[in-house]
Amino acid sequence: MLSRTHPLPVASEQRRGLTILGTLAVLSAGVVLLACSLGSVPLSPGELAAALGELLRDERATLAATLLELRLGRALSAFVTGAALALGGVMMQALLRNPLADPYVLGVSGGASVGALAAILFFSAAWMVDAAAFVGAMAVALLLFLLAHRDLRGSASSEGSAPMLLLTGVIVASGCGALVTLMLSIASDNRLRDMVFWLIGDLSTAQFRWLPWLLWGGVLALGLRMARALNMLAMHAEAAAAFGVRVGAMRKALFIFSALLTASAVSTAGSIGFVGLIVPHACRFAWGPDHRLLLPAATLAGGSFLVLADTLARTVVAPQQLPVGVITALVGVPVFLIQLHQQHRR
Fold first, then answer.
1. Which domain CATH number covers 186?
2. Measuring CA to CA, how many Å separate 168 from each of 35, 143, 146, 324?
3. What is the pLDDT of residues 91-145, one digit of tens each?
4. Predicted confidence (pLDDT) per residue in 3-42, tens digit
5. In this structure, what are the phi and psi dihedrals at residue 5, rounded to the nearest 5 degrees?
6. Helices 291-315 and 63-96, interaxial angle, to 10°?
7. What is the DSSP string of 62-107?
């Protein structure tokens, strides 16, 4: 009798997870289509369908097709950036065992800021800014890895490893912040605006590229493979080690994955705040802490959230465009405060 009844809760949980992920996937597609249709020149559903047909035939004979190509590339860049930040946020929270951590907490974004602002200050090509941001982020990640290697490798009972890693990241981020302030103070007026927009987070110059998608997809696949181990690691490090989880290797993987995702997102759109903090926290609050569901749900929700924020940023005062980081902060602050209040009441 037990063998018949035991699988039912498991099957029910799987159906629940598939329902949630299917709904989020449909919403993500709808949000991208909404972003493609809204703008200074709105596109009706018929125009959108016709323009999509032209793009599939590799034609750009109408204004609608040209607008769709531009908006679709920007929407896809926004989606993969938000998805990477949310996924990196989940992994960073698991690494530090703190639901209030975000992908920027260890200073990787500070290294990206130093690289990007240096490229804006001395060069002008967009690809140089993106490349310099990625190199700067990975340089800081490598420095952090070397400084905190012993803490990441520590035994399961080393509860002090997370605070030491966090402290190291805060100090490195402070140094990067000083360099950023120095470059802002010596920048000319015509370069200063671009530098400030990059620091706030801006998708106006983002271009569709395959590399962020490949990186996000690969990290998500690897994260799902170790989701069960993440669940045990979140409960307690000692319990995870007792069940055969290689805690040191898991910590290193989480750090490397978070650094890669953060570097990819920041090099695409600048330092967009709150996505990697509020989206994982909201998904955990809504659907529970199981990483088998939390990882894909957070990444879909993060991508959709950033696409909506970017659509609002470029349409609310059209034809002028706002930095998308302003929208995410204005939305993220009250939402996060509400989440904290509700969690405290529980």
1. 1.10.3470.10
2. 40, 10, 11, 29
3. 998 888 877 788 888 888 889 999 989 998 887 667 788 889 899 999 998 888 8
4. 444 444 667 888 898 999 999 999 999 999 999 998 888 8
5. -90, -25
6. 140
7. SHHHHHHHHHHHHHHHHHHHHHHHHHHHHHHHHHHT-TT--TTTTS
Task: Please name the amino acid found at residue 72.
Answer: L
Torsion sign across C-alpha atoms 248, 250, 251, 253: positive
Domains: count for the chain: 1
CB neighbours of residue 336 within 10 Å: 16
Residues in the chain: 346
Query: CA 119 to CA 125: how far, in whole Å?
Result: 8
- For 210-223, the pLDDT digits (tens) are 989 999 999 999 99
First to last CA, the chain: 37
pLDDT per residue as tens digits for the range 191-212? 888 888 888 888 877 778 898 9
Would you say residue 148 lies in a domain?
A: yes
> Strand, helix or coil at 304?
helix
Tokens of 279: 């989206």
Amino acid 196 reads V
User: What is the C-alpha to C-alpha distance for residues 3 and 68, in angstroms, rounded to an integer?
Assistant: 54
Please indicate, yes or no, if residue 134 is contained in any of the structural domains. yes
**Could you tell me if residue 51 is inside a domain?**
no
